[in-house]
Structure formats: C-alpha cells, structure tokens
Specification:
mainly alpha; about 280 residues
Length: about 280
C-alpha cells in the first residue's frame, strides 16, 4: 500500500464520518418556513457534492498510477457536475424502486387471484410478494450497482465523455458481479446487522462499551468496503509490485537459440568467393 493510498483511506475514514453526521443533521432540519426549506436544499446539495467528490476521487485515483492523490482530487472536482447528474438519476431510480416496494402488494394480490382461478389451486399473495421482493433485492443490490459504478468511474475520469458504451465493459464480467454484491453486503448489510445486534449485559457500562465497539467495527467495514468498491470499479487490475532489487531474468538458451542459429547458417553457407563451404 502506497502512502497516497493510506492518505485516501484516512480521507474516507474522516470524510464519511462527517458526511454521515451532516446527513443525520439534514434529516432533522425542519421545512416549516421558506428559510429552512432553502437551507435544507442547500445542505442536501453540499452533502451530495462532498460525497461525490470524495468517492469520485477514489475512482480516479485507482485508475491512475496510484502515486499522487492531488491529481485525482482535481480531476474529480472538475467532473463534479457530470457526477452530480448521474447521482440524481440514481436517486430517481432508487426512488422508483421504493415506490414499487410499497405498491407491489396490489399486483401480487391480483396475480395470486388469477393463478388461483386458472390453476384451481390456492396461490397465496404472500408467495407472489416474496418473489417480487427477491427480484427487487437483486435489482437494488446487484443490477443497478453493477451498471452504475463502472459508469461513475468513467464519468469521474472523463467527465461528460464518460457517458459511453465502453463504460459497461466491466459489467459483462461475472466476477465483477460477485465482487460488487459481496462488498455491498459486507459494507452495508453486515454493519447494520452488527449495530442492531444487542448482546445481553447486566451493567450499563458493558452495554455502552459493546455498542461503541460494534459501531467502530461496522464503520471500519463500511469504509473499507467503499474503497474496495472504488478499486474494483475502476477497471484496472491490481498490480503486485516486484520485490526491491529484483531484475528481470536474462533470456534463456531457448530464447537466444533462433538468432544464433540463423547467423550460423548464414555464415556457414557462404565463403569470401561465393563458394559453398564444405
């Protein structure tokens, strides 16, 4: 791990904590007056822009030589507007999925009634609802992230020119699908389960210590998973540097044999007077 990578991890550790605190504060801002409504909108734009700059810098950094961090910060800041547009589209899509989750009970009941009528066997609406929920889970945690993360990496690096078909080349790899789902589960689902898990302790001090410890582990999982998602979504394979002082091995006898053989044949077949050497 280079020094710039460690600094980027530290930026994610501090920056994501500040973003989560600002998001929590934004949820408590009232909208009873015009002033508070404007302040809520400005705060939402600031939080979203800061999050895009932070994680966009990681997407740019992991596609570069990973030596200097300042060029990645400048590139992500320059392409902040295209990233903002992509984030608005993503929020709109996830809003539609949330609406469908609440609305899907009616289609599930109608489909169950239709199947019961046609098959003359009872089909429970809960069964159809479970199928809907499974499809929704796959779309929310696999399909959309696998499509959006490589596009975000391309836009963070190229700006408006990043909206192209080449951005989805990474999405055609099944290994990338497994990586994204695994990291999302490890970075979001598992930390939430860890925080909500309440072990039984008799004393309040032990309960508080347990909560703080679980909160720290959950946050470390979240930060590390975010960085790994940026790494795998950059589209650049991880290169393991060679050991210091190691030089490439010299060519073996088989590598140099064709050249020496050709020279030997040319010399052996000619003499100074053009006669053939016996």
């Amino acid at each position: 791990m280079t020094r710039a990578t460690r600094i980027l991890w530290l930026m994610h550790f501090v920056g994501n904590a500040l973003l989560l605190w600002l998001a929590y504060y934004w949820l408590g801002v009232g909208e009873s007056t015009i002033g508070r409504l404007v302040w809520s909108a400005v705060l939402a734009v600031v939080v979203l822009g800061a999050a895009l700059w932070l994680h966009g810098s990681g997407l740019v950094f992991f596609r570069s030589d990973r030596i200097a961090l300042s060029p990645a910060l400048r590139t992500a800041l320059r392409n902040l507007l295209p990233l903002f547009v992509l984030a608005i589209v993503a929020l709109f899509v996830y809003g539609l999925l949330s609406w469908w989750r609440d609305y899907s009970t009616q289609p599930a009941f109608k489909i169950a009634s239709y199947l019961t009528l046609k098959s003359r066997k009872p089909v429970k609406p809960a069964t159809i609802q479970s199928i809907f929920n499974a499809i929704l889970w796959l779309v929310r945690w696999a399909v959309i992230p696998v499509l959006l993360l490589p596009l975000a990496a391309n836009v963070a690096n190229k700006g408006w020119r990043g909206y192209g078909s080449e951005a989805w080349r990474l999405s055609r790899r099944w290994l990338y699908w497994i990586q994204v789902v695994t990291l999302l589960v490890a970075g979001i689902w598992l930390p939430l389960k860890l925080i909500n898990w309440v072990p039984h302790f008799d004393s309040f001090s032990m309960q508080m210590a347990s909560f703080l410890f679980r909160l720290l582990i959950a946050y470390l999982l979240f930060v590390t998973a975010c960085l790994l998602l940026e790494l795998v979504s950059s589209g650049v394979p991880v290169v393991v540097p060679s050991a210091p002082g190691r030089t490439p091995a010299p060519p073996g006898p088989r590598d140099s044999q064709p050249v020496h053989a050709a020279v030997h044949d040319e010399v052996s077949t000619q003499t100074p007077h053009g006669s053939v050497k016996p």
